[in-house]
Amino acid sequence: MRYKDYVWPHNPRVYTIEYKRTMGARKVPFGRYHLQDLGPAQRVMRGEGEFVGEGAYGEFKKLATVFYAGGPGLLVHPVWQTSNAYFVELSLRQEPRADYVGYSFAFWEGYDGHSTGVQVTGGGGEPETGPAAGTAGERRHTVRRGETLWGIARDYGLSLTELIALNPQIKNPNLILAGEEVRLA
């Protein structure tokens, strides 16, 4: 598992994802009630694990440093989908041993599905293309059979984190298909 630049030495023992829908309930005069679906709330990813061996507490300190950095980051789980998330909780459970540290954490998924920007259109109502629309210097790579994001990043001199940040449409970096377009710049 990975968050921002921190990679867990081994995956947490427990990992849960909570889905929640916000509902409104209004009393109807001389009646019962009316429910209103206000839509899904943020997903919450929680986990528990241990760091064991020499340097267990040092490993926890690395994780705590990432927590204190603040801001959203890319949370990658090897099985579940990748998400843009905020690190919102971190707890330490210190046993009376120097080589064991238990911990728990929580991440809240960020939602970037809305836009407050203005889209510039040409005279015909179609979005502009070309240099005026900001595509100057944009490079793409078409995935070939057997390629991985790690290999593509290495071939183009990018870190995996940079490549994933440029391609938010890729939900699971372990699963890319031949023919997909990967943005490089």
UniProtKB/TrEMBL annotation:
CDD domains membership: LysM
Coiled-coil features, chain-numbered ranges: none
PROSITE patterns named in the record: LYSM (PS51782)
Top-rank lineage group of the source organism: Bacteria
InterPro entries: LysM, LysM_dom_sf
Residues of the LysM domain: 139-184
Protein name stated in the entry: LysM domain-containing protein
